[in-house]
Amino acid sequence: MKRIAIAAAVSLLTAACNRGILDPVGPIGAQEKQILINSTAIMLAIIIPTMIATVAFAWWFRRGNAKATYRPDWEYSGAIEMVVWAIPALTILLLGGITWIASHDLDPAKPLKSNVPPLKVEVVSLDWKWLFIYPDQGIATVNQLVIPAGTPVQFRLTSATVWNSFFVPQMGTMIYTMPRMTTRLNLQADRQGEYNGLSSHFSGDGFPGMQFKVQALPADQFAMWAQGARGQGVPLDGRGYAELSKPSSYVKPITYGAVAPGLFDAIVSGRAPANPVPPPLHNPPAPPAGA
Amino acid sequence: MFGRLTWDAIPFHEPIPLITSLVVLIAVGAITFWVWRKGWWPYLWNEYITSTDHKKIGIMYIVMALVMLVRGFADAIMMRAQQSLAIGSSQGYLPPEHYNQIFSAHGTIMIFFVAMPFIIGFMNFVVPLQLGVRDVAFPTLNNVSFWLNASGALLINLSLFIGEFARTGWLGFPPLSEKAFSPGVGVDYYLVALQISGVGTVLTGVNFVTTILKIRAPGMSYLRMPVFCWTALASNLLIIAAFPVLTVVLAELMLDRYLGFHFFTNDGGGNSMLYMNLIWVWGHPEVYILVLPAFGIYSEVASTFSGKPLFGYRSMVFATLAICLISFMVWLHHFFTMGAGGDINAVFGIASMIIGIPTGVKIYNWLFTMYGGRVRFTVPVYYLIGFMLTFVIGGLTGVLLAIPPVDFVVHNSLFLVAHFHQVIIGGVVFALMAGYTYWFPKAFGFTLDERIGKWIFWCWFIGFHLAFMPLYVLGFWGATRRMQHIPDPTWAPWLHVAFVGAAIIGLGIALTVVQLLYSIRTRDQHRDVTGDPWDGRTLEWLTLSPPPHYNFAVLPDVHGEEAYWVRKQTAIKQDQLIEEPDYQPIEMPLNTPTGVIVAFFAAVCGFALIWYIWWLAILGLVGAFGIFVWYAWRDEHEHIIPVEEVRANARERRRIRMEHLHNLSQST
Fold first, then answer.
1. Domain of A150?
2. CB distance from A247 to chain B under 8 Å?
3. Which end of chain A has fewer CB atoms at under 10 Å, N or C?
4. Are residues A123 and A90 part of one domain?
5. Quick one: which of B475, B330, B460, B467 has its CA closest to B416?
6. Residues A45 and A150 in one domain
7. Does a structural domain hold residue A214?
């Protein structure tokens, strides 16, 4: 019992190091966290008094409280009506203003302002792993997204299978990946480190194994990594892609030293090797120990 | 001959479904046998199964909802158990293909076969009584609606024993639900069951809108209707407008799956975004179809147990209709993350928040209904206050989700799961439990045990918060929904707390059964002899408990809001009832087996469609249609209750009421 309690306490403490959307590492996530906190505070200012009043009124006007005045016919008050319509209306007016501005500022497709030229990444969700293509570097990775810290990243996303959603909680905004369609997303990590990414839209039996890692490196280290990866290992050509698109889950990171040009657009337009129908996955590969 | 149906469809090699199947089959068999031994089948057949009495149909809906609640809860506790175990290197006890069926079944069952029938059950039981009339507009159709709903429920449960259920979530998004990715029978079970029950629901909507608009007691103008009737009207208008969309979108998916169409496929010009839009055009109003009548129940409870009229009745009616209208203009907030752009997201986000205004007004109106009242802390009031405290937080998280940039980081997460359980459990389920306690004596003539009722409340209230508050936290940490395996071991303690919460809710459900059995055993101590156990204000409390088939010997004459309260106060003041009216014979609709036979053929047709047994599907369809035609040709639709019987019953009722009111006038 004691051991369980200690284990629980330890895991709670370590959990505090990776707090998802409450610990943003880039401008988008930081702004979204701010809006979340501001809006919550605005609403709590109304809700907490309402909750207190609920309990207080019910208790004070309980039957048997001789001190409370019973007003059996009191059913209308213009002044109160005006106030109870005004309170939520004004709150929503304020929040609506925030929403209008923030929805435009934080539109996923809007490029980030920066002096540094953006890195382009093409994202493809497969059954059940993530393919990241770096068109300018001519390389590709699976389940591992390496980016330079402090540089905007321009994503174009699609799916070679069913819908998924690309989400790195600490970087902010998620977006759907949809077959035969392209979505756009702009994110940036300012802090170096390794972050968790996942699919946040259910996509079938191997779905929980669709986790990936984001590594935000200093710009020079990223350039070294990209340089070193180019030409190394297997290329992602037609056959390689057909092999990759077979259903699999909990896939370990792969790096491809070369990518067939135009692969992303071929996937979007349905010209890439057809994605085979996933057979029922009766024995999914177990996640690696300690994953 | 049998299409896709082979012995492989029976889960001989999977112990969990096999054992569940056997237990359920044995239980159903034992109950059937017991009822037969007791000689109760003729009673059930005549009084319930073939009844066109809105009260009996209402009770059948609620019984079905309670049974399905047990099934839906079993799914819930299995999910919570899996997520408590399958963390890090452990895979838990449910493989993905089983876990995915469970969460899909949980959502489908809880919405379509627990919340909906429970709400529709209350509307059936209460609305005609509150309107002061004898039945709904189309009593036979009402029976058919119920049985079609029951067929849907039957097919969903059949998927446990024969074949599999969908593994695509409760809304079955394509392309995952297309044949290319889900070739099995699971999605077909889902589609067919929802289509059949959906027809029943649309018929209910038509029936109730007609009833409320056209059939009311003399003097019951629109602005004299109890708020529950208003919310029922709004809810049924939404059913009529929204359910056809569901029928169409599911039919399109069926065309894709059965006939190779390309509405939502990846190839052939299909577009799955269309499904997302259409399903939510139905799906968002669906939430209000459930919660508006729940608001109606809270309004009745707040006013009755505060001993006051509802504060701001007109404002409440206006708020209800505003919600009814706006709820159709917000569906896009379910997929802000599709990348529609700033303008569209902002407009739908703000429209969603605007619903918060009339909803907030309702909260304040209940608050001021208690103000200046004499609040009796009965079980329904516990639920009312529990609701008001829980629902405002659910509203807060709902508005957060309506802000697109916030939704971008919590969409599809456990935060979302916590939010909608907070509004559905805190809003709808609490209302259902309050209404169940409140109207039970009207239905059966005795009240439910108060003490166990309060235990049940605390189980729901504490269990809910333990089960779902941790999910808000996990949502902030980036935990997404529908995970058969949890990657991050640091989430474990929160998931364990959530499991404990679910178990406490389970205790509450078990206690509900205990409460029912205990109350039946001790019913002689809880008899409601007056027909008005709570000192009510609306017309259902005017008649006896349980009411006669025809509800009222003479339709009540309504003067002003709170029809019954005004009448009761006058009678108390004058210490006499109104003058005895001139009784007339009453025409009431006959019982009919149409509903149960149509539903049987519909279920056969559905089952055959699922398994590609085409000849049987045609047989089922012809059978169902044939029964309708046969019914249309029958000559006698009604039977007459002779005036002597009406008069005798009415005089007995007047004697009881006189005694009751006399006691009341003595006490004041």
1. 119-268
2. no
3. N
4. no
5. B475
6. no
7. yes
Closest residue in chain B to residue A268, using alpha carbons only: B266
CA B410 to CA A2: how far, in whole Å?
35
* Bridge partners of residue A236, in order along the sequence: A259
| B537 neighbors B285 (Cβ within 8 angstroms) | no
Judge if A193 and A258 occupy the same domain.
Answer: yes
Residue A26 has which token pair? 């880039």
Nearest CA in chain A to B359: A88
Residue A4 has pLDDT above 80, yes or no: no
Q: Model confidence at A290, in pLDDT bands (50, 70, 90)? A: very low
Chain centroid to CA B16: how far? 28
Kind plus residue range of the DSSP H or E element containing B652: helix B643-667
Please report, for chain B, the start and end positions of each structural domain, with discontinuous segments joined by +.
Answer: 40-590+636-667
**Which positions 137-196 of A are in contact with B (Cβ < 8 Å)?**
161-163, 165, 167, 169-170, 172-176, 178-181, 183-185, 196
Collect all residues of chain A within an 8 Å Cβ-Cβ radius of residue B79: none
Query: Which secondary structure element, helix H or strand E, spans residue B111, and what is its range?
Result: none
Out of B175, B315, B412, closest to residue A162 by CB: B175
Q: What CATH number is given to the structural domain containing A83?
A: 1.10.287.90
The answer on A211 and A80 residing in a single domain is no
| Residue A86 touches chain B, beta carbons under 8 Å | no
Q: Are A76 and A2 in contact (CB under 8 A)?
A: no
**How many domains does chain A divide into?**
2
Q: Which residues are paired to B588 by β-bridges? A: B639
Domain B40-590+636-667: homologous superfamily in CATH: Cytochrome c oxidase-like, subunit I domain (1.20.210.10)
Name the residue in chain B with its Cα closest to that of A185: B339
**Residue B308 per-residue DSSP state:** S
Size of interface A-B (CB pairs under 8 A): 320
One domain for residues A148 and A260: yes
Q: Please, what are the averages of pLDDT over each run of 10 residues along chain B (668 residues)?
A: 87 85 91 94 95 96 96 96 94 93 97 97 97 95 96 94 94 94 95 96 97 95 96 97 97 96 92 96 96 97 96 96 94 95 96 95 96 96 98 96 97 97 97 97 96 98 97 96 94 96 97 97 92 94 93 92 91 86 92 94 97 96 92 84 93 89 76
Residues A133, A45 share a domain: no
H or E element in which residue B641 lies: strand B638-641
DSSP β-bridge partners for residue B641: B586
Clarify whether residues A92 and A168 are in a common domain: no
CATH number at residue A143: 2.60.40.420
Sheet with A183-187: list strands edge to edge: A183-187, A153-159, A119-126, A129-134, A139-142, A254-256
Give the residue among B342, B352, B341 at the shortest CA–CA distance from B399.
B352
Is residue A113 situated within a structural domain? no
Three-class SS string for chain A? Answer: CHHHHHHHHHHHHHHCCCCHHHCCCCHHHHHHHHHHHHHHHHHHHHHHHHHHHHHHHHHHCECCCCCCCCCCCCCCCHHHHHHHHHHHHHHHHHHHHHHHHHHHHCCCCCCCCCCCCCEEEEEEEECCEEEEEECCCCEEEECEEEEECCCCEEEEEEECCCCEEEEECCCEEEEEECECCCEEEEECCCCCEEEEEEECCCCCCCHHHCCEEEEEECHHHHHHHHHHHCCCCCEECHHHHHHHCCCCCCCCCEEECEECCCHHHHHHCCCCCCCCCCCCCCCCCCCCCCC
Closest residue in A to B345 (Cα–Cα): A103
- A239 inside domain: yes
Chain A environment of B367 (Cβ under 8 Å): 50, 53-54, 57
Say yes or no: A230 and A127 in one domain: yes
> Smallest CA–CA separation between B42 and chain A, in Å?
47
- Note the pLDDT of residue B665: 77
| Residues of chain A above pLDDT 70, percent | 88
